[in-house]
TrEMBL record:
This is Cellulose biosynthesis protein BcsQ. It holds the Pfam family AAA_31. It comes from the Bacteria. Residues 1-183 form the AAA domain. InterPro entries: AAA_dom, DNA_Partitioning_ATPase, P-loop_NTPase. Gene3D superfamilies: P-loop containing nucleotide triphosphate hydrolases.
Length: 275
């Protein structure tokens, strides 16, 4: 089971959008996937068509009482319709651990080492999934550190803009320090550029800067600025099921991104030990 945290220090760069795009690609590819919504705003939960009051416990409650609950009893299926071309009831698995403002209880600058393991412990009990996507809040406090402790990979999202590039460099440095101290097995999978306008000279300049700064860590897939992205998210639909050429192009980019970062054989437990 590969566990990927999607992170950035800066808000609004597209963490949730990338999480949802990857979830859509994974579902289209038939990869059993769990989305863990770590952001107190719960945007991924909303985007996956899951109501905040769906009868199961939210992540903040599960993390507050990790011994009281079994994670598999508190996941809900996404409310997304089937992707294009898929048969109805094809048995595809895309589940969600609901986010809620209660997660912000852990949004402190320092979290005790035992607390840092809480998400990892919850995930240790699930076996149904090949991929777990963890949508993180825009900060490097307790919640993100808990997500990194549980992860085999961290994917950073950046926009081709001055502040976002600078923020990504700081996030990479923080991640390197964190790995040395707490979680040597976590890989910095790379940085994905989002909201790229290929015709923009400024964006080309910033992408060049990112290549120099991040080297191989800048992933070869660049996600483009998409005119109807908010409409798709607002409708709580997977991009792979949305009609039209723009959505098809975006779906293809997410397929490529998933193929670049997904390692089917990853066992997080051995990854965490650094083997
Ligand atoms: N590639 C894209 N094209 C167009 N709009 C985008 C794209 N990526 C993100 N957005 C929009 O930008 C806003 C912030 O994205 P979001 O994924 O919520 O960022 P974060 O989770 O990092 O705060 C949202 O309104 C989203 O719809
Ligand atoms: Mg978000």
């Amino acid at each position: 089971m590969q566990i990927i945290s999607i992170s950035s220090l800066k808000g609004g760069v597209g963490k949730t959008s990338v999480t949802l795009g990857l979830a859509s690609a994974a579902r289209a590819a038939g990869i059993p996937t769990l989305v863990v919504d770590m952001d107190p705003h719960g945007d991924a939960t909303t985007g996956l068509g899951v109501s905040q009051e769906s009868g199961v416990q939210d992540l903040g409650t599960l993390l507050s009482h990790p011994r009281r609950y079994t994670l598999s009893e508190h996941v809900v299926p996404s409310g997304w319709p089937e992707p294009r071309g898929a048969e109805a009831g094809s048995g595809r698995v895309l589940d969600v651990v609901r986010g809620s403002s209660r997660t912000s209880l852990f949004e402190r600058p320092s979290t005790r080492p035992r607390e840092l393991r809480r998400l990892a412990s919850l995930l240790d009990t699930v076996t149904r999934y090949a991929l777990v996507l963890v949508d993180c809040p825009p900060a490097l406090n307790g919640v993100t550190r808990m997500a990194w402790t549980a992860s085999s990979d961290v994917l950073l999202v950046a926009e081709p803009s001055l502040f976002s590039v600078a923020g990504t460099e700081r996030t990479l440095r923080a991640l390197d320090l964190f790995r040395k101290e707490y979680a040597q097995g976590v890989r910095a999978t790379g940085v994905v550029a989002n909201r790229v306008r290929p015709s923009s000279t400024e964006h080309q300049f910033r992408l060049g800067e990112m290549e120099r700064m991040f080297g191989d860590r800048l992933l070869p897939v660049h996600l483009v600025e998409q005119s109807n992205w908010q409409q798709i998210q607002g409708a709580a639909w997977p991009v792979h099921a949305w009609p039209g050429e723009t959505a098809a192009q975006s779906s293809a980019l997410f397929d490529k991104l998933l193929a670049t970062i997904h390692r089917p054989q990853t066992d997080r437990r051995s990854a965490r030990r650094g083997s």
